Amino acid sequence: MAFLGNHSSLELLLAASFILLASLAANGDEIFYEWRVAIDTKIKPVSADQPVITINGMFPGPLINAPQMTIFMNGIEQRLNSWQDGVSGTNCPIQTWEKLDLSVSVEGPNWELFLLPFSLFQKSGGGFGPIRVYNRIIISVPFPKPEAEYDLLIGDWYPKSYKMLLNGKGPYIDPSTKSYESFTFTPGKTYRLRISNVGNVWSFNFRIQNHKMLLVETEGSYTNQITFDSLDVHVGQSYSVLVTADQKAADYYIVATPKMVNVDKISSLAAIGVLHYANSTTNATDLFQLVEYDNRSCQAQPTRNLQVTNVTLSQTFILHGSKAEIDGVSSYTVNDVSYITPTTPLKLADHFGNWSGVFQLDQFSTNSSNGSPKHGVFVASGDHKGWIELVFMNDLDVMDSWHLDGFGFLLLGDWTNHSRSTYNIYDPVVRSTVQVYPKGWTGVYAYLDNPGMWNLRSQNLRNWYLGQELYLRVYDADPNPAKERPPPDNLLLCGSTPL
């Protein structure tokens, strides 16, 4: 869940806890969850003193099983309901000891998501957990039902130096690890692994010793099925793979190593777990060889039988993600603008017609940079029910990834002024987070059929925290709730909104 706040709400959150009640609606049925969010100082996944954000006392948080429904959790589109998207531009923060009831619904095929806090640097302290969204009975799944499913939430963790955690647990055989993750497979059976990068900075390469992986889904889209030995997963991305226990009875290493770091340091940074065959009496071996795996790109290019050959674009945004110094402070920018969070959420200011002092629509360029970095509240207009081309340019020397709330987008490929002719418009996949390589460009299409105030940001926590984001205002003047829901009765108010 991505509920943001200001510095004071962070201090309150660290001092105590809050309660979040969610009613998930699907097919006329409701599923109720109660999440108690708090700080735990005893978990210490790698034996270092660092507070951990827990949900119901668990890290990672408890699994949410849901039929199709529309909550901001990473990848949920919040159809017609940006009121509860859970970012600073839409919601006031939940204060300490405060309770908030949410009513949300989720749409999409059988897929893997995750919830997380997005206030300041809270994501780096945990608070994330897995979500599984299942198909309605009448919608078929394009692969046989697996024997079982496992969630793998993997990401970088920084107590005193960087480590990588697998489901909140430290790496196997690391002396600082209190416990490690393991999964038991029955020989001959096939299992679904739902892999998510819940980290803050690092992309990682994922592999299972001596086993192939069949890619079947990414962020809510079934893909054309492709077999991999290893898979790159960038910050904020999720994949589902099928793995068959077709090797001799033994234990095998599960490894995730960070991308684009000094190869001499990889062995001390990797997330390491164990795949255990049920009849195994043999421990896993050759860890060093597996961890020191060739660090070249193993990026999946998922595809789907979906054509966009007849799209007529109504807008093109060319967004430069850069780093700059503004008033002596290191900042990250989009087209020279480093976003600052106003005390009044943009959605509330928009609804109550009180923009003055909060934001100015279309104040900043959506297609150019002029080398004059500045702070600002970057809000751009999106044409309702129009196709938009988003071109992400990474001016940095490190990997970046971008996420758009409220929509999925079609990943078309790398971009230059002359590369539209090479766009994959015949079988692109729909996803919500896309990687952008250092000094590279990535182009996507999105259909803006979901009115609201939607966040477009870097998924790299440092970049986002220091300003690399903007908001897309997709507006429809028709008050018909079939187009956008009215504000909820328990809407939290803050800033300059009327009480």
| Total strand segments | 31
Low-confidence stretches: 1-28, 66-75
List the strand order in the largest sheet. 9-8-11-16-13-14
Per CATH, what is the topology of the largest domain?
Immunoglobulin-like
Top CATH class of the largest domain: Mainly Beta
Q: Compute the number of helices.
A: 5
Give the distance, in angstroms, between the N- and C-terminal Cα atoms.
25 Å
- Report on the biggest sheet: 6 strands, mixed
CATH architecture of the largest domain: Sandwich
Number of domains: 3
Overall average pLDDT: 79
Pfam family, one: Cu-oxidase
Keywords: Glycoprotein, Signal
Protein name: Plastocyanin-like domain-containing protein
Family: Belongs to the multicopper oxidase family.
Question: Could you give the topology of this structure?
Answer:
Layout: H1 7-15, E1 17-26, E2 29-40, E3 52-55, E4 64-67, E5 99-104, E6 111-115, E7 129-134, E8 148-157, E9 163-166, E10 182-185, E11 190-197, E12 204-208, E13 213-218, E14 221-228, E15 230-233, E16 238-244, E17 251-258, H2 266-269, E18 271-277, H3 287-291, E19 313-326, E20 329-334, E21 337-339, H4 346-351, E22 374-376, E23 379-382, E24 387-394, E25 400-404, E26 409-414, E27 430-431, E28 433-436, E29 441-447, E30 452-458, H5 461-465, E31 469-474
Parallel strand pairs: 1-5, 4-7, 8-11, 10-18, 19-24, 21-22, 23-31
Antiparallel strand pairs: 1-2, 2-3, 6-7, 8-9, 11-16, 12-15, 12-17, 13-14, 13-16, 17-18, 19-20, 24-29, 25-28, 25-30, 26-27, 26-29, 30-31
InterPro entries: Cu-oxidase-like_N, Cu-oxidase_2nd, Cu-oxidase_C, Cu-oxidase_fam, Cupredoxin
Keywords: Glycoprotein, Signal
Signal peptide: 1-25
